[in-house]
Each structure stands twice: as structure tokens, then as C-alpha cells.
Write a structure and sequence with these properties.
The protein contains five helices and three strands, in the order E-E-E-H-H-H-H-H. The protein has 232 residues and is mainly α.
């Protein structure tokens, strides 16, 4: 009775998946299952850009360089100047009108009526200036917050690009491993079935040849199904 020798046992079937120029492969090397992912040129360019940009941005993420501070201050100054001009345009005509009115009625401005009315206008203007000063501080804080928000959004975008590439690699490798596992499972089932048949079938002398044909270990062009039918 012939036996199915250990040399007939199928070798490990590697797996490979290609998507858009990127390729994932798995195989046995020196007894170790190894997986590899080769990016396409375009995917590698995106991945490298994302990592390079992140390495430049993250160390200074919450730090404003002189150029950024100058840009923010310019916007604050423009806002402040516009506000001061608006306040002056509101209160200066009121003071001028008061001066003209008092001068036409009393001939001079050296009287309590002018002083009292001027004091009321100046008090209102002081209140407007104080309120606007708070607006200026809020404007500066808002500009700084907007700058940080833009930076965080960019970091999130770049991180997403890098993570997406990483996830694609893991998914492709998982698919390659699944394909390899299916092929190896099939070969193992065939080997076990033929081993059982070899111990009982009267044609067991052909088992080794049949096994080689089914597992692709022989140079024969006979199809696995034909081999199995002739064996049976």
C-alpha cells in the first residue's frame, strides 16, 4: 500500500492584491509569515506629504510666529481705527453743535450750561470708548482663535490622509491574507482527503501522482477534476 509522503504536502500559498497601482502581498519567508504593502507613486506622494507637513506643523501648533502676530495685530489695528473714527464721527459733531449753540446765545463758552452739556457728551463718549475697548480685545482673541481653528482643521485633514493610507494598507493585506488562507485551506483539505483515500482505495498506488496534480506540484497538464475522476 502506498503512502502519501510528507514531500507531497502542499507548500504555503502566498496571497496578492493590487488596487490602483498599490499592491499587498503575503508569503512565508524563512518560516515566518510576512506581509508587505507597496504603495503606488500617487499614494506614496500623498502619504509622504501628509507626514512631512504634520512633522512641520505639530511642534509649533499653538505658537504664533512674528509674522502671524504681525498679521493679527494689523487686523486689530484696522478694526480699532475704524471704531475710533466711528465714535468721533458720532460725538464730535455733537460737541461742535453745542459750542456753536452756546456761543450764539451767550457770546462765549465760559458758562455752566456749556460745561454741563459738554460733560454729559464726554461721559457718553467715554462709555462708548470703554465698550469699544472690550470689543477690540474680543476681536484680537477671536482672530487668534480663528488661526488655531484653521491649524487644527489642517492637522485633522493631514492626519486623515495618512490614516486613510494606513487603513487601506491594512485592508489590502487582510484581503491578501484571506485569499492565501482560502487557498491553503483548500490544499490542506485535498491533502487530508487523499491521505484517507490512500489507506482504503485499491488504486492507492496512484495517490501520490494524483495529489501532485491536484496541488499543482506536477508538470502534468491533466486537470485536477480529471485526475480525481480517473483515480476513483
Amino acid at each position: 500500500m502506498s503512502k502519501v509522503s510528507s514531500s507531497d504536502y502542499p507548500s504555503y500559498n502566498s496571497g496578492s492584491v493590487s488596487i490602483g497601482g498599490s499592491t499587498a502581498t503575503t508569503g512565508m519567508k524563512n518560516g515566518v509569515l510576512a506581509s508587505n504593502y507597496n504603495m503606488s507613486n500617487n499614494e506614496a506622494a500623498v502619504y509622504d506629504y501628509a507626514l512631512s507637513a504634520l512633522s512641520n506643523i505639530l511642534p509649533q501648533l499653538n505658537t504664533f510666529n512674528p509674522g502671524t502676530l504681525s498679521s493679527i495685530q494689523s487686523e486689530v489695528d484696522a478694526y480699532k481705527n475704524a471704531g475710533v473714527q466711528s465714535i468721533n464721527q458720532m460725538y464730535n459733531p455733537m460737541i461742535t453743535e453745542l459750542q456753536n449753540n452756546i456761543a450764539s446765545r451767550f457770546g462765549n463758552l465760559d458758562n455752566s450750561i456749556f460745561a454741563d452739556n459738554l460733560g454729559e457728551i464726554e461721559s457718553e463718549r467715554a462709555g462708548a470708548v470703554s465698550s469699544f475697548a472690550q470689543d477690540v480685545l474680543a476681536k484680537q482673541s477671536g482672530l487668534q482663535s480663528d488661526e488655531l481653528t484653521k491649524r487644527y482643521a489642517l492637522v485633522e485633514l493631514l492626519s486623515g490622509l495618512a490614516n486613510n493610507t494606513y487603513d487601506n494598507a491594512l485592508s489590502a493585506i487582510g484581503t491578501a491574507l484571506g485569499s492565501s488562507s482560502s487557498a491553503n485551506s483548500y490544499n490542506n483539505n485535498v491533502y487530508n482527503a487523499l491521505s484517507d483515500m490512500a489507506s482504503t482505495n485499491s488504486k492507492s498506488g496512484n495517490t501520490s501522482l494524483l495529489l501532485s496534480n491536484l496541488l499543482g506540484n506536477s508538470g502534468s497538464k491533466t486537470s485536477p477534476l480529471s485526475s480525481l475522476l480517473s483515480f476513483l
